[in-house]
Design brief:
Layout (H helix, E strand, L loop, with lengths): L1 H16 L37 E4 L1 H5 L6 H8 L3 E2 L16 E2 L7 E5 L2 E2 L29 E7 L4 H4 L6 E7 L6 E10 L6 E12 L3 E12 L33 E16 L2 E17 L22 E17 L5 E19 L14 E21 L7 E17 L3 H4 L22 E17 L4 E12 L3 E15 L2 E12 L3 H5 L2 E7 L2 E8 L4 H5 L8 E15 L2 E18 L6 H9 L7 E25 L4 E18 L4 H6 L8 H9 L4 E10 L3 E10 L2 E3 L8 E3 L2 E12 L2 E8 L33 E9 L1
Parallel strand pairs: 4-7, 22-25
Antiparallel strand pairs: 1-6, 2-3, 4-5, 6-7, 8-9, 8-33, 9-10, 10-11, 11-12, 12-13, 13-14, 14-15, 15-16, 16-17, 17-18, 18-19, 19-20, 20-23, 21-22, 23-24, 24-25, 25-26, 26-27, 27-28, 28-31, 29-30, 31-32, 32-33
Amino acid sequence: MKNKLSLLSIAVLGALASQSALAQDNSAPANTLDTLIVTGTRVADRTVAESTAPIDIISPEVLEGTGTTELATALSRALPSLNFPRPAVSDGTDAVRPAQLRGLSPDHVLVLVNGKRYHSGALVNVNGTQGRGSAPADLNTIPIAAIARVEVLRDGASAQYGSDAIAGVINIVLKGSESGGSIAARYGQYSAGDGQQYQLSADAGLKLGEAGKIHFAAQGGHQDQTDRARPYLGSNPGPNSSNPPAGEVSQRLGDPEVDHGSFAYNGELNLTDYLTLYSYGIYTKRDVLSNGYFREDLDPNNIQEIYPNGFLPQINNVSTDYDFVLGAKTWTDGGTNIDLSYTYGSNELTFDIKNTLNRSLGPTSPTRFFAGALEYKQHVLNLDFNKALEWGLAYPVTLSYGVEWRGEEFIQTPGEPDSYANGSFGGAAGSQVFPGFQPGYSGNYDRNSLSFYAGLEGNITEKFALGLAARAEDYSDFGNTTTGKITARYDFSPAVALRGTVSTGFHAPALQQQNFQAVSTNFIDGIPYDIATFRVDHPAAVALGAEPLKPEESVNYSLGLVLQPADGLYVTIDAYRIAVDDRITLSANLTSTAVRNYLNANGFPSVGGGRYFTNAIDTTTDGIDIVGTYNWKLANSSIDLTAGYNYNKTTIDRVAGNPAALEAIDPTAERFSRVEIGRFEKGAPRDKLSLGGTWHLASFDVSASATRYGEFTSFSSNPDNDQTFGAEWTLDLAATYRINGWEFTLGGDNVLNEYPDELIYATSNNGQFPYSGSSPFGFNGAFMYANIGYKW
């Protein structure tokens, strides 16, 4: 690690000294240091530079300066500590991709909008991707056109916000001005000739009489699929083995086809000098078409009368999200500020399976099925109190306290009967690639929680700031939990400050994790298995050793330096350790002969294995974040230089032994296999380095950013097929010309057309899958784009 940090120091100094125009901002640029923050603090006038914990401010210019239309992708380019791979051929995870902060689980990040809890997605990631087993919020449902800024708190905050805030908090602040606006059009395409994207977006602010304002935003667009699959390279292709013959492409691998549209508003109305009503709403719909595994013509689960040349089944997911907040704030000079709000959020994800069949129904099988739907709903009532206390200290001390009630509901709707039917013709039952949800797997599940919280923070002296927070929460399904946090900062001088935090946290088992059930086709070492995911209380799961889920518990330590040694130069160095006990994970796919025989004899005649959620492991994540920004003033221009680095290492400290019930069925079973251990410890890059800058001229901005993604490893049940993928650099370039409110941008992401290392043949699906879905920058190559916009 010393060598890595030494190289980083050289790179940072080189970037800051360079006179070339480097990249778009990758963290908090110099002009954000005086931005008042609302995340991780209740103090009304605290800025980024004064923060007691590491926080990044991502401006809309940074988000829009990337070629992407996805918020999660834009944030992954702006934040060294955020990992957002682009898996493919992974069922619903193609449509709803999870993001990781500081190497932890995607649902260890709490997402807020205007400081209010955003709903999680209905999907549970059950395939072999990073974030397997998680049910996080979908960042891509929040339109970039509606965003004023994004505040990313890289610190545990469960005591302040409740469940999920173990790795940190992403707070999206919506545009809310009463005037101004913009309209923009964007077009882009990959250098390989596919993946065309276009988008239209607009926003505008309006006055509501003399006492109110509202800001509207909308965006919509389309994305074509990409395909990086290679020709079939089977060792014995031909008319008596399999179709297509060698050299013919039958599989697709890449981004899905997406149609998307979003609408948002954010407004407030001042009823009196001391009472304000506020509200915001977001509606997003995404229609996603992704691909499964190709079934060859002689595959025993194909019907040649329907597909004489085989078939490529597809999943059509439609994801619909609503988020709505209504609240009132009241305040008096020197009195208690009160904020009362109601939040509603929901995500519905439907599954339509196309270009497929149900083998067990024979030649009359339909080729399209409705396979069911998942839905998650959230209701939150908040009552917050905030008061400045005059204790004769350097500044007032802020006292905050409140109560929160949260109600949650998870609904799993069955598919049409033919989508799961087990007919009389034999072979695989249900629609292939994704069998429909059976009525016995479906249901409606709910719970509620009540929490009380309090905090005290302020500047004890001119140089010393201290904060305390505590939260007690009671869940209707698993009981109580209590968390706390201490933050402190000492300014040795205006140029040097030391800050640190110690906190405990928790992540409640999601309703989705507790109740989701399905059978899906998984390819394990190239062999297809229909794997059943069981609820933890299902008799089959109990027989395999499942136990009721309990919340994860964490302890977070953070220690950092804040350095401002010269005008315009700002550097933060934050080291952290996050220990998580009883992590909620999805067990390994239990596919041994003994397990299959047990399941086949006990009500599951066609499945090839089973799995369930469990609190089987404890982990420790150690890491460091280094962020530097420098605003270089020139005679007629300026250059914003940035450098960011994240290193994190996750170690599994404990793996629970197999329960007695599983041992009785199969003493050799691995409930948590080496594949799962490897995914946690080495499945994502250990480090990520970003260097960049933007040169601001009178009418031009020229930017470039270089990002180095560290190596990662994919694991197989056969150790001989493990593979480590080398570190890779990508380069992004963009130029913007402004005149009379108009902006014209030409840019390219990954302009050097870099790809990750190719998969070895043994894990490449007969040569058809050349790249790993865990690649942190995808595997689509260079992307070129053009934007035209007008702002007023």
